Amino acid sequence: MSLVRRSSVFDPFSMDLWDPFDNMFRSMVPSSLASSGNDDTAAFAAARVDWKETPEAHVFKADLPGVKKEEVKVEVEDGGVLVISGQRSREKEDKGDRWHRVERSSGRFERRFRLPEDAKVEQVKAGLENGVLTVTVPKAEGKKPETKAIEISG
């Protein structure tokens, strides 16, 4: 997946865009011909993340199969940027093993999301269960407009 950077501080989705054709072209190139060394990182760098907003919170769910809790880091940077990062280790290769196919990716991953202004960044919670990381960012209660009754004369 290829990320296209945009720069709009007002757009919560401005940090990254998904390129639907990136994986299609990558799959046409045999792994032996692909660029050296970084294929594992590139393949796993784009951990799939869903972001939904409920009345109470922003909820992020990331598919991280085979990743241990100790291999994942969730941080909120200054300026309200949620950073989900970590690393999935490559399976140990024993001498004498003969691999016929390697499709599961490994390596470092990082995703960044600019949080809206109503996010309570000091109350972020995260949990990893069954290979799915769930990050919950509570929302500040919106200030309700004051209503003042106006007497109608006449």
Describe this structure in words.
- This is SHSP domain-containing protein.
- Belongs to the small heat shock protein (HSP20) family.
- Residues 40-154 form the SHSP domain.
- Keywords: Stress response.
- With 154 residues, the protein is mainly beta.
- The protein has a domain at 39-90 and 106-138: Immunoglobulin-like.
- The chain has two helices and seven strands.
- It has helices at 22-28, 39-45, and strands at residues 49-53, 57-63, 72-77, 81-88, 107-114, 125-129, 132-138.
- The protein has a four-stranded antiparallel β-sheet with strand order 1-2-7-6, with no helix packed on it.
- The relative contact order is 0.20.
The rounded Rg comes to 21 Å
- Measured between the Cα atoms of the first and last residue, the distance is 68 Å
State the total count of DSSP E strands.
7
CATH top level of the domain at 39-90 and 106-138 is Mainly Beta
Compute the number of helices. Answer: 2
Low-confidence stretches: 1-9, 24-43
Strand order of the largest sheet: 1-2-7-6
* Share of helical residues: under 10%
Q: Architecture of the domain at 39-90 and 106-138, according to CATH?
A: Sandwich
Oligomer: single chain
- The CATH topology annotation of the domain at 39-90 and 106-138 reads as Immunoglobulin-like
Structural class of the helices, strands and pairings? mainly beta
Percent in strands: 25-35%
* Net shape: rod-shaped
Main sheet overview: 4 strands, antiparallel
Residue-averaged pLDDT: 77
